[in-house]
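Sat 14:20. Reprocessing the chain from the morning session after the first attempt stalled halfway. Input below, unchanged.
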Amino acid sequence: MTQSISQKGMRIRLPLLLLGTTVLAGCASFSQDGGLDKVASITRERQGIAPQTIKTEQDGENAGAEVKRLLNGQLDAERAVKIALLNNRGLQASLADLGIAEADLVQAGRLRNPGFTFARLEGGGEREYERKFLFDLMGLLTLSTRSEIEQRRFQATQLRVAEEVMRLAQAARQAWFEAVAARQAARYQEDVLAAAEAGAMLAKRMADVGNFSRQRQQREQLFQAETRAELTRVRLTESAARERLARVLGLSGAQRGFTLPDRLPDLPASLMEEKAVLQRAMDGRLDLDVAKRELDGLAKSLGLVKATRFVNVLEVSYLNNNVSGQPHARGYEIELSLPIFDWGGARTIKAEALYTQAMHRVAELAVNAESEVRDAYAGYRAAHELAASYRDEIVPLRKSLSEEALLRYNGMLIGVWDLLADTRSQVAAVNAAIQAQKEFWVAESNLQITLNGRGAGAMTISKSTPAAEAAGGH
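Finished this time. C-alpha cells:
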C-alpha cells in the first residue's frame, strides 16, 4: 500500500526520524574490559584470585615470564593456583566466551541496517525513477526488550565463567595436594622397602648357618618382593599425580621440572560450621544465580513473543519517485505480514513450555544444591576426623610402641624379628596417615567447589593401603 504525502512537514520528519533512530541504535558499543572486571570482582571477593586474558603476543610473553618466576623455587598450593589461572589454555578459551556474549549484546542493541532500492523505467517517451529507503520498524519497537534479554545472557555468561575460574583454582589445589601426598608416600614406601631388605638379608644369613627355617626365610623374601612391587605402584602414582598437576597448570617441556614440598600442610585447627556453610551456599551458588537469570530472560522472551505474535514483520519505506513530464512524487510504504496461515500460536506455546521447563530446572537445582553441600560437608568432617585420628592417636601410639620395642630389644627381651615387624607397622601407619591427610585437603577443596557451583560428587574415604595390611601380618 502506497500513500502520497503532500505536507512538507511530513516529508522532513520521516527522514529525520529514521536518522535519529539509526544514531541511537549505533550507541551500543563494546566495553574496555569485555566483561572481565565483573568476573575478576566475583572471584577476588570469594577466593582472592583473578584471571587474566591472553589476547596478544605481548600478553603471552608477560604471562610466560610470570609463570617462570612462580616456578622458581618450591611450588606451593597458592603458586599452583596462580599458574593455572595464567597458563591454563582451557580457561583462556572459556574467557573468550565473554567476548562472544558481549558481541551478541552489542548486536542486539543495534538496528538492522536500512535498505535502499533504485529503479529506472523507460517507455513511450516517458522515463520513471523510483527510489526507496527501507527501515525495520519492528526492530526499533523491540530494540529495548531484545537488549535487555541479551544483557541478562551476558551477565549469566559472566557468572558461568567466574564459576569455571574458581573450579579451576580448586582443581589446581587438589592436584597439588595429590602430587605432594604421592611424593610423601613414595618416600615413606622407600623406608618400608629398606626395612624389608634388611629383614630378608638377615633371614638369609641365619638360614645359611641353620638358625632359621626355610619357611620363615621365604616369608621375609616374599615381604621384600611385595614391598618392592608396592613401591613401583607408589612411584607410578607419584608420576601420574605430577602429570595431572602439570596438565592443570598448563605446563610443558622444561616447566614440568617443578619442585614440590616433601610433606602436606598440617590440618586446620578448626572446621567450618555446617549452618554457616549451607547459608553461604544458598546465598552464593553461582549456578543457581545463572539459572535464575536465565529464567528471568526467558520470562522477558515470552513477553516479547506474545507482543510480536501477530506482527512479526513490519517495515517502513520512504519513497521518492520521478516521472518525466510529471510532478516529483514522495511518500511512504508500510509492509506488514498478515497472520493468515501462522497466527504465532506455536511460537507462544513453545516459549511458555521453555519457561515452565526452566522454572522446574531452577527448583531442582536448588534442592540438589542443598544436598550436594550437605554431602560435601559430611565428607569434609569425616576426612578431618580420620586424619586427626591418625595424627593424634594411631601414629603416636605406633611410635611409642616402636620405641618400647627398641628398648626391649636392647634389653634382649625380644628378638630382631619383633623389632622389624614393629618398624614395618609404624611406617605403614604413617603411610595411611598421609593418605588420610590428603583426603581431607581434597574434601576441603570439594566443599569449596560446592559452595560456588556444582560439586565434584560424594567424598570416598579410602581403606588402609596394601603395605599396611602386609605389615600387619609380620
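The chain has one domain: 31-110+142-309+344-472.
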